[in-house]
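quick q for whoever's on today - can somebody do inverse folding on this one?? i tried earlier but teh output was garbage lol. tokens:
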């Protein structure tokens, strides 16, 4: 019986159950046992992407024409609900970059040639992608980015830098957002696929406090030349396309945060049943019971909210408002849960080997990355007419 039980008719078909079984087996047998190894090496082996490609996990919603499974958001949600139990948020983050952050625009707006060259191998797990938006002087304010792509005949010549980029060292290509016309306002940005083997591209790795299972870096572009044919969609539509791509990123971030909170809650419940203080298990103290059930209530309520977003996406409806709310609450709940869980673990929770300790630092990211809580609230305030 799953810990979080929702009105999940969304997932209640034999096909969904079969998909979850395969995802669970993969996570439990192939990822969770290697969680510490990924943390120590600070990146995900490329073989993990290839294996996920074989299992059909890297193109769940993508057109079968490009090797995708042609399924809907409910299957993506199942995959990331299971990945929350991989015991390594950094690994889940790296995978979600590939599936829901670096490739949705390419699938939606890329030319057939671009899809052949980058999307098909990404879906097979033969190429790894990264999403390169944030810059040293512009994160929340995406329109403040400065990285320039200047047209020279059939090429873009790119100069600038990007920071905090997941999969920086692992990626074979970047989905880059660059300024192509500084005088055109929101019409002056373009999404461009940049192979990381391009001359003039380099990176430095950054040392993170959490999510250590995938690499994060600072990227440099020094006269990097790529064909104009690597443009995703229309020149000048990059900002709008990236805003659409953010919807997948934010929904997957909410699912991840919520599932990781459920996993941490289960670990903490088991710990509280075992750990004896003042002559009885922690779980027999009413104060502990109240903490645990209150956390579970919040996780379950967030799951319902997330499922509402998934339902809207499955029906093809706009879910911008609901996704902003879901990312906001899932991020906040996951850090509140992680704070209680580390407390209930006592000194052991403070050890790196403890899931509670890792969960405490890992969970902090959702409220910052992919649009901070304040950015979600800024959108929401606008959307409700404030
Ligand atoms: C581990 C990790 C992985 C990441 N991976 C990627 C990646 O793969 N690709 C990528 O492009 N980026 C990535 N990022 C960057 C991430 O998306 C940015 O850090 C985030 O968008 C915030 O931008 P910033 O760091 O520049 O903070 P700033 O924009 O400087 O904001 C600082 C703080 O100001 C507050 N704030 C922001 N806006 C408002 C507002 N309107 N009102 C009030 N307060 C506000 C928020 O609390 C925010 O945290 C990653 C970050 C981390 C830490």
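ok took a stab at it. sequence:
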């Amino acid at each position: 019986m799953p810990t979080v039980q929702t009105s999940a008719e969304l997932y209640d078909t034999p096909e969904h159950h079969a998909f979850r079984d395969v995802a669970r087996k993969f996570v439990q047998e192939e990822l969770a046992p290697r969680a510490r190894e990924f943390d120590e090496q600070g990146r995900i082996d490329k073989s993990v992407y290839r294996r996920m490609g074989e299992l059909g996990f890297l193109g769940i919603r993508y057109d079968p024409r490009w090797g995708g499974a042609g399924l809907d958001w409910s299957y993506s949600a199942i995959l990331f609900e299971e990945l929350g139990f991989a015991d390594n948020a950094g690994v889940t983050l790296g995978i979600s970059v590939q599936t829901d952050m670096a490739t949705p625009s390419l699938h939606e707006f890329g030319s057939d040639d671009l899809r052949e060259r980058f999307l098909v191998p990404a879906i097979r797990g033969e190429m790894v992608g990264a999403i390169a938006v944030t810059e040293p002087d512009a994160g929340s304010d995406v329109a403040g980015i400065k990285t320039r792509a200047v047209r020279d005949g059939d090429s873009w010549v790119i100069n600038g830098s990007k920071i905090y980029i997941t999969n920086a060292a692992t990626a074979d290509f970047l989905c880059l957002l660059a300024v192509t016309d500084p005088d055109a306002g929101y019409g002056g940005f373009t999404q461009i696929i940049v192979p990381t083997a391009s001359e003039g591209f380099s990176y430095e790795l950054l040392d993170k406090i959490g999510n250590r299972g995938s690499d994060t870096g600072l990227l440099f572009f020094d006269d990097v030349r790529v064909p104009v044919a690597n443009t995703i969609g229309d020149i000048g539509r990059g900002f709008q396309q990236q805003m659409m791509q953010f919807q997948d990123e934010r929904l997957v971030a909410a699912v991840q945060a919520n599932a990781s909170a459920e996993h941490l809650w289960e670990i903490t419940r088991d710990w509280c049943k075992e750990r004896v203080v003042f002559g009885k298990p922690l779980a027999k103290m009413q104060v502990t019971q109240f903490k645990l059930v209150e956390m579970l209530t919040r996780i379950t309520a967030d799951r319902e909210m997330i499922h509402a977003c998934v339902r809207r996406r499955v029906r093809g409806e706009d879910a911008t408002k609901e996704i902003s709310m879901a990312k906001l609450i899932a991020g906040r709940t996951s850090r509140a849960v992680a704070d209680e869980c580390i407390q209930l673990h006592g000194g052991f929770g403070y050890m790196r080997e403890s899931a509670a300790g890792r969960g405490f630092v890992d969970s902090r990211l959702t409220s910052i990355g992919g649009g901070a809580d304040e950015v979600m609230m800024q959108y929401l305030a606008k959307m409700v007419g404030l």
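fwiw The mean pLDDT is 96. also The pocket of flavin-adenine dinucleotide is lined by residues 97, 130-134, 139-140, 164-166, 208, 211, 216, 365, 368-372, 374-375, 378 (CB under 6 Å). so keep that in mind when u check it
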